[in-house]
Amino acid sequence: MSLVKPSRPIRTTLNLADAKQVKSVRKRLGISAPDLVRIVDKMGNSLAAIQKEVELERLVNRPGFAGGSNS
Description:
Helices cover about 50% and strands about 0% of the residues. By secondary structure, the chain is mainly alpha-helical. The chain starts with 18 loop residues before the first helix and ends in a 10-residue tail after the last helix.
């Protein structure tokens, strides 16, 4: 019997080599694999940073978004 606890996976970062993790994140965020890789290259592998970037891109690219000031 081992007295050492098994190591827990790190849940705050994305490992692009783990296909199950990539699929789960893609499904949760609703983005394609190339978009996920592009965002990870840009922002790093932090799940919080990836989610924030996806939300920002959706806000900027949403249809009918005029941008600019409210004048």
